[in-house]
Design a protein that fits this description.
Blueprint lengths: L1 H26 L3 E4 L1 H7 L1 H30 L3 H48 L3 E4 L16 H12 L3
Helix pairs in contact: 2-5, 3-4, 4-5
Length: 162
């Protein structure tokens, strides 16, 4: 009878401990923050797309340099004006390309960061990952809650397929 009461008491204590732990875990929210500027610029996908865009722009700028050389070598005024018009159009084309490329790659990168961040939050049990950057969404924060480096490592590994 004493053993039975002891077992019942131990089961009761164990059950209460589990219930307390679960309740405590649910009520204590886990909130961390990241520096989104650093996260964006140090993300490997950002670096890769930036290099690809810069390569494309260098190619287009070499076309502008060729047109400039043709303009300087051309003595015929009508031919020169046609070349100058082509030069102006090419410059506008490059500016438009840069703008569209930047918008497109920014959207793709933030979309990927959002997915990876969600995975990271689930893995770590975080309720929220707040943004802290120059706009100062987080006005003050305990440095222990800054998970920028950890999230950056996580998203870079996910991006690389690890």
């Amino acid at each position: 009878m004493v053993k039975r009461n002891l077992v019942i008491c131990l089961l009761l204590v164990l059950s209460l401990s589990v219930i307390f732990f679960v309740f405590y875990k649910k009520t204590v929210s886990s909130i961390v923050y990241v520096n989104s500027n650093e996260l964006f610029t140090e993300f490997k996908m950002t670096k890769e797309l930036k290099l690809a865009g810069e390569k494309e722009i260098r190619l287009k700028n070499s076309q502008i340099d060729s047109l400039r050389n043709l303009v300087s070598l051309t003595s015929d005024e009508s031919s020169k004006s046609v070349l100058i018009e082509q030069l102006i159009n090419k410059k506008q084309e490059i500016a438009e390309f840069e703008n569209q490329y930047t918008q497109l790659y920014s959207q793709k990168i933030w979309s990927r960061i959002a997915v990876y961040s969600s995975d990271y939050a689930k893995l770590k049990g975080y309720d929220f990952i707040l943004n802290s950057n120059n706009n100062q969404t987080v006005l003050a924060g305990n440095k222990d809650k800054d998970v920028t480096k950890e999230l950056l490592n996580f998203i870079n590994e996910k991006y690389e397929g690890f």
